[in-house]
Amino acid sequence: MKMWLVLFLAMSIALVACPRNGSAEVQSFADEVDWIQTLVDRGEALDNEKSPEIYAEAMQLAEALIEAYPDSARSHYSLAIAAGNLALYKGGKDKVRLAKVIKDSLDESLRIDPEMADAYRVRGVYFYELATLSRILKLFAKVLYGGLPAGSLEDAASDLTTAMTLDPKSIYAHYNLAKTRYAQKNYGAAKELCNMIPNLTDTDDQDPQTRLDAAELARKAAKEIAKRANRRG
Fold first, then answer.
1. Given a cut of 70, is residue 5 above it in pLDDT?
2. Is residue 86 a contact partner of residue 98, using CB atoms and an 8 Å limit?
3. pLDDT tens per residue across span 129-140
């Protein structure tokens, strides 16, 4: 049985066993954070037309959590991950608005907790996606919707390097930093980062797929290194 199907079935059982009719039923901050993450995970597992509704609910709960716990980095991070997933299903003005919510939420998380590895990882990937967006799409966003937040490959590399320093076992951080180095045409660094991943232990359900992606990226980087060597020869 596929991992996502197992995850979905497990979440469905949990949702039936623990019905919820509003945030008042969750008694602790940790439970509220966990519930928001559960909703995000459920939306990812479903990956269909119902997912945006689930992410929108997660966003509403995260906004309420910020109202109750404005000084918690995890409150703002919860809003960022919910908004990030919802943005995948939106276009145009809504996507630009959500991009700003994501950036502002992650910035606030790191202002409160400068050692929050999760926030550095997510913001690093966010910067990478912004930096690799086509110029035409950036122009459309600027003309039609006032533009996107700033972000560069250097910003992405900085955040992902910090994330790796704070959490050296993160496969996700290693792989995304490797992608960033590859985009910077630093193929040696990209290959080296990918080759570190087989020595790391899975800590996330997506890590097995990330391993495969990293192996493919390592092969691409090796080809680029060989091309450079041939040109020099």
1. no
2. yes
3. 888 887 766 665
